[in-house]
Specification:
This protein has 322 residues and is of the alpha/beta class. It has 2 domains: 123 residues, Endonuclease, Chain A, CATH 3.30.870; 177 residues, Endonuclease Chain A (Endonuclease, Chain A, 2-Layer Sandwich). The chain is built from 10 helices and 17 strands. The strands form 5 sheets. The protein has an 8-stranded mixed sheet, sandwiched between helices. A 3-stranded antiparallel sheet has the order 5-6-7, covered by helices on one side. A two-stranded parallel ribbon has the order 1-2. The two termini are 31 Å apart.
């Protein structure tokens, strides 16, 4: 990947690589030094330290995954650029879903990137002004209505949290949710259970074992309440499930970087694409059905030892921090 970026930079393409300082902490200095030597640009989002101040390490990270090509093609979703999600390297690589976007909506995705880039430069390049004169081509409208939603701790509006809760409340027939980390807010949990109680087909797909034992235990603590209200809960067992999608009836499909938890809704910088219309909802439906082939349905009051129930309950107490 670095070699390809360097090649494009040498060809005269403006290459900008922005990574989260904590999420990419193992990225060696030599890699981005190589990119800069080739003419590319590199920035760290929220380095642990800058100047005399120390930035909080865990919170306020950028969890956004954005690729913008010539202002005309954009990608976003759950996929990280890492060996853990590369099936050419690991047979049990993370299972994930991404989306390719074209048309005017890419301008909004690029705007989110440029805002993050400008913000990161303020701390990494001694307040060097950001270049907002990037190419924003005038592209013809496509056949899908798409909205880019961005949220983060820089705003109290919690846009992505609100759009998920509102979409759940708007569901009439079905609500199919896939998330690797299920630690819902009170509002989100209430919306899910209310939807199931009024007859909506609510399905929740989570990993059997996530890459965090605490989060997995916290998620299990919600299962009995969900199942009692009529929610169908499934655990994906083929590999680590990392997809973040939601299908509402035949009218809305949501795909992006946000997990269904407090950290994504309130503490991290996230982005998602909300697509209106039957065509995209049908594609997410197809993916969901395919994933269910590698999942087991969770039953009510499943056998658990005392210590497991105690661990799940203890993990749930940490939900606001997960």
């Amino acid at each position: 990947m670095i070699a390809l970026l360097c090649q494009k930079a040498r060809e005269g393409v403006t290459v900008r690589l922005l990574v989260d300082a904590l999420g990419s902490k193992r990225l060696s200095r030599k890699y981005y030094a190589t990119l800069e030597a080739a003419g590319g640009e590199f920035a760290l989002f929220h380095p642990t330290k800058f100047g005399r101040r120390v930035r909080p390490v865990i919170n306020f990270r950028t969890h956004r995954k954005i690729v913008v090509i010539d202002g005309a093609i954009g990608y976003t979703g759950g996929v990280n650029i890492t060996d853990e999600e590369d099936k050419r390297i690991l047979q049990d690589a993370y299972h994930d879903v991404h989306v390719r976007l074209e048309g005017p909506v890419v301008n909004w995705l690029q705007t989110v990137f440029l805002e993050d880039w400008s913000y990161a430069l303020d701390y990494n390049r001694k307040n060097e002004p950001a270049d907002f004169n990037a190419l924003l081509p005038d592209l013809p409208d496509g056949n899908q209505v798409v909205q880019i939603m961005a949220s983060g701790p820089d705003s109290s509006m919690e846009a992505i949290h609100r759009v998920h809760v509102s979409a759940i409340h708007a569901a009439h027939k079905r609500l199919w949710l896939t998330t690797p980390y299920f630690v819902p807010t009170e509002a989100a949990m209430l919306a899910l259970t209310n939807a199931a109680l009024r007859g909506v087909d609510v399905c929740l797909l989570v990993p059997e074992k996530s890459d965090s034992r605490v989060v997995t235990a916290a998620a299990r603590s919600y299962f009995d309440e969900l199942i009692t209200c009529g929610v169908k809960v499934f655990e994906y067992h083929r590999s680590m499930l990392h997809s973040k999608t939601m299908v509402v009836d035949d009218m809305v499909g949501i795909i992006g970087t946000a997990n269904f938890d407090n950290r994504s809704f309130r503490l991290n910088y996230e982005v998602c694409a909300v697509v209106y219309g039957e065509a995209f909802a049908a594609k997410l439906e197809q993916q969901f059905v395919e994933d269910l082939k590698h999942a087991r349905r969770v039953g009510y009051a499943r056998p658990q030892s005392f210590w497991q129930r105690l661990g799940d309950s203890a993990a749930r107490l940490m939900s606001p921090l997960l």
